[in-house]
Specification:
Elements: E1 2-8, E2 12-19, E3 22-30, H1 36-54, E4 59-64, E5 67-68, E6 75-76, H2 88-96, E7 100-104, H3 105-116, E8 124-130, E9 134-140, E10 143-145, H4 181-185, H5 187-198, H6 204-212, H7 216-240, E11 244-248, H8 257-265, E12 277-280, H9 287-293
Parallel strand pairs: 1-4, 4-7, 8-11, 11-12
Antiparallel strand pairs: 1-2, 2-3, 5-6, 8-9, 9-10
Helix pairs in contact: 1-2, 3-9, 5-7, 6-7, 7-8
């Protein structure tokens, strides 16, 4: 079966064709980010061009920031604002003459890694994106768990649990609340925490490098981050009890986290032992298009 996955981002649109699990075609174009009709045209054109090149028709799935509103069946919470309130999947379906499936980027990431990535063969996979923001998606037996409000897995906007003195004052979040997981565990959260404790200014990747080289201040900041990540994931484990937690996004490349976090989460999880594994993503930046393709 030929499957087309499309990653609709704010600056670029990428299409990937999967024949079974092999990528047989790729194309990337700039996103006409302020023009809804132009986006629909661009998506339809990518699919048409791919089908002409391959001589075959395929299913179409789309990965995008934001989610479908259960009430209106239109997009919500997309950072490409012209998409909000618009029935993108229905408009594209009318253009291409077939059903279109659409999920947000965190769900597509989790699905990609569950089907043929780090979580392959595991019944329950929780996919985590740690980067500019903090997102999450849940896959159960190879299917995305979306939820009746289309927010399943959105752990970035729960409050960081088990607050300690060095977590305070709780940072403000763009959602209007204070102390959300995202404010601590995003790249900005790690950077600002280090500055608050040391007056030094380093990007998250620089901090990780300094910690790995033996810098005491960098190591302390990384350990605070790891403990916060362990606390936040302990809530996920208590509620969802995933077999595998897969990390993606820029901060997932900090190798030390894969030892530091599991060593800490046992004291927060309501179990005598924690069998959940935490692994880096296999497909990395390709998880968006691959996950979109696997929606079929």
């Amino acid at each position: 079966m030929l499957r087309f996955g499309i990653d609709l981002g704010g600056t670029k649109i990428e299409l990937c064709a999967l024949d079974e699990s092999e990528a047989v075609y790729r194309k990337r174009i700039a996103t006409p980010a302020h023009d809804y009709d132009a986006i629909v045209d661009a998506l339809a054109g990518l699919v048409t061009d791919a089908e002409l090149a391959l001589g075959r028709h395929g299913s179409v799935g789309i990965c995008t920031p934001g989610a479908l509103s259960r009430g209106s069946d239109t997009l919500k919470n997309s950072n490409t604002r012209c998409l909000n309130g618009r029935p993108l999947h229905r408009d594209l379906a009318a253009r291409l003459g077939r059903e279109i499936r659409l999920e947000n980027d965190a769900n597509c990431f989790a699905l990609s890694e569950a089907v043929d990535g780090a979580g392959q063969g595991s019944p329950v996979v929780f996919g985590v994106i740690l980067g500019t923001g903090v997102g999450g998606g849940i896959v159960v037996n190879g299917r995305c768990l979306v939820g009746c409000n289309a927010i399943a897995g959105e752990w970035g906007h729960i409050a960081l649990p088990y607050l300690e003195s060095n977590d305070l004052p709780a940072p403000s979040c763009y959602c209007g609340r204070f102390g959300c997981v995202e404010t601590y565990l995003s790249g900005r959260g790690l950077r600002e925490d280090h500055t608050r404790h040391t007056s030094e200014h380093f990007a998250a990747d620089e901090l990780a490098e300094r910690a790995a080289a033996g810098d005491a201040l960098g190591r302390a900041s990384l350990e605070r981050y790891a403990d916060r990540l362990a606390r936040a994931l302990s809530i996920v484990i208590n509620v969802v009890d995933p077999d595998v937690i897969v990390l993606g996004g820029g901060l997932s490349q900090i190798e030390a986290l894969y030892a530091l976090v599991p060593a800490r989460w046992a004291k927060y999880v309501f179990s005598d032992a924690v069998a959940t594994r935490m692994l880096p993503a296999v497909h990395g930046d390709a998880s968006g298009v691959r996950g979109a393709a696997w929606l079929w």
